[in-house]
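User: Can you recover a sequence for this backbone? Please restate the input before giving your answer.

Assistant: Of course. Working from this structure:
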């Protein structure tokens, strides 16, 4: 994909880009920028990360969520989750989930041995399939246990150790602030904080003011996360919370060129939307077996459809497609003429 030379920034865009492009020290390593791809299962996969890199990449990448118990024996050439390109090792942090400190430490050592940027500990996933196993966000109910995991991983490796977590299980910033201090004391090098309570998937807006309180409580870098859909949202989060960086999730799936747009002035053309979807389809077929490729393409199009005024047409066609060939036909039909694009996503697709 050949990106055109970016036009000059507006004054406001230039200020944001300058801030996002500042280096950031995470533990003993340095990032070239402060805009990150938030960890997202199934959609933050190796194919989507390659697509982002074709537009110029971003400061920090997180993998899909990996089960710590399986990481030591995973084969990255065939694993659907524990997988990467050599070109992204220097900025890819592998996210792991689990409850046993020794198991989490063993997984971290494998990640270190693979020469990856760092290890990210998941204390934020709130889906019932995870929390019923007393992992992910469920560990926020036991601050000592969560901190013990961070301490064990910190002792096991010398690469950056980061933590992704939520407000907790009630709408009160005090536990989140307490957890931030505990994580820093246990040895975490940075935090990604999503200011929603664990039972609330996305029914209410995130409380960005909680990010400011977490940031004020620690000396390590804090990435803000939650409902950043436009460059203006990104600017407001940085200015109102004082966070060191921003981790973008759903919008980075919907618009993989977002990092290039906010940091380097890239402007998508009328054909970018159709070309990008077709490129991702080819990359998914390259990296995954037909079943997993189809599953991930459908998940991607769930978010991608949010871009368009009549996105439900694309969504329905893709979700009903029996295979990748049928998805290709659906994409060709939808993008035969440039669709009308929403400035902000249709949030019905983002729930």
């Amino acid at each position: 994909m050949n990106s055109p030379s970016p036009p000059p920034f507006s004054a406001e865009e230039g200020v944001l880009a300058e801030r996002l492009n500042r280096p950031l020290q995470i533990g003993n390593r340095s990032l070239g920028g402060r805009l990150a791809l938030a960890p997202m299962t199934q959609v933050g996969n190796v194919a989507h990360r390659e697509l982002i890199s074709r537009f110029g990449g971003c400061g920090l990448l997180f993998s899909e969520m990996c089960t710590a118990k399986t990481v030591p024996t995973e084969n990255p050439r065939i694993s659907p989750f524990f997988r990467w390109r050599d070109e992204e090792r220097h900025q890819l942090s592998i996210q792991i989930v689990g409850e046993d400190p020794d198991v989490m430490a063993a997984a971290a050592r494998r990640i270190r041995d693979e020469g990856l940027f760092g290890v990210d500990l998941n204390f934020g996933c709130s889906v019932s399939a995870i929390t019923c196993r007393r992992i992910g966000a469920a560990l926020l109910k036991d601050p000592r246990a969560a901190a013990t995991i961070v301490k064990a991983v910190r002792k096991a490796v010398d690469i950056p150790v980061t933590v992704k977590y939520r407000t907790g299980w009630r709408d009160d910033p005090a536990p989140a602030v307490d957890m931030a201090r505990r994580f820093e004391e246990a040895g975490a090098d940075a935090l990604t904080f999503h200011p929603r309570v664990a039972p609330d998937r996305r029914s209410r807006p995130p409380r960005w003011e909680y990010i400011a309180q977490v940031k004020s409580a620690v000396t390590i870098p804090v990435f803000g996360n939650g409902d950043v859909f436009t460059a203006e949202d990104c600017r407001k989060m940085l200015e109102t919370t004082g966070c060191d960086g921003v981790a973008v999730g759903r919008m980075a799936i919907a618009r993989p060129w977002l990092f290039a747009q906010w940091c380097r002035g890239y402007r998508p053309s009328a054909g970018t939307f159709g070309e990008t979807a077709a490129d991702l389809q080819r990359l998914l077929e390259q990296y995954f077996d037909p079943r997993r490729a189809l599953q991930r393409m459908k998940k991607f199009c769930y978010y991608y459809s949010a871009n368009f005024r009549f996105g439900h047409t694309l969504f329905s066609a893709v979700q009903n497609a029996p295979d990748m060939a049928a998805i290709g036909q659906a994409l060709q039909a939808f993008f035969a003429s440039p669709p009308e694009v929403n400035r902000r996503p249709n949030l019905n697709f983002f729930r």
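That completes the design. The chain has 14 helices and ten strands.
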